[in-house]
Write a structure and sequence with these properties.
alpha/beta; 13 helices; 9 strands; about 40% helix
Length: about 280
Amino acid sequence: MCVSSSDHNPEIAKSIDAAGIRTNYHDLGSGKPVLLIHGSGPGVSAWANWRLVMPELARHARVIAPDMVGFGFSDRPANIQYGMDTWVQQAIGLLDALGIAQTDLVGNSFGGALALAIAIRHPQRVRRLVLMGSVGVPFALTPGLDAVWGYEPSFAAMRRLLDIFAHDRQLVSDELATLRYQASIRPGFQESFSAMFPAPRQRWIDALSSPEEDIRRLPHETLVVHGREDQVIPLTNSLILSDWIPRAQLHVYGQCGHWTQIEHAARFAWLVSAEPLPL
């Protein structure tokens, strides 16, 4: 059963049972479905991650953006085991609950690792794949990612994280830092966040990685996107993915950090919306 929320908070949209998890999700537009999977920053939600591109993508497609369990406003069941199996089951459960047989799949950072795992485990459920600043391949923990996953709530810590995320300093303000800090201290948010990626954190990069041989077998048309100045996830990740995935195309945005979908929102939406030209 799908339930719409009357809450004035724009982060809270519809609610549906996805593989046993009451899931908050956004559902905009019509046409071919596009499933957007957010990253793993503190206080993140689907709306916070995708708010600028959802309306643009919804002009041409049905856009679905869920809060993955442990993040945002989806339920946090007691004794939930956070990990790839749980997140993949939730994503597939959401598609099943919405009656969607196949979708374009867009993953940001942590969401990219999840998108890779979905495409590998359920290839028939994915039409096209977009990986943006993606985890999912082995790499050494960066100071930026260590700071993100090691976040302890304070305005100062959130302000420092925003400086890491964005290359464009004009996007970073005390007002935004205050909003994101307040989001990170909502009841249950920090408790689940701190439980996901405790130190030592290199092991979580490894846990989110998919085997090279599985990535090389992916049959999907794939767009790999990265910000050249990304301080959180190294550009080499996308170089590796574009090399391993047979039908991959790589697009690198200059003067862009880890926030491709925010710093280059219109260009990113256009790129994702474009159908590949026939060979």
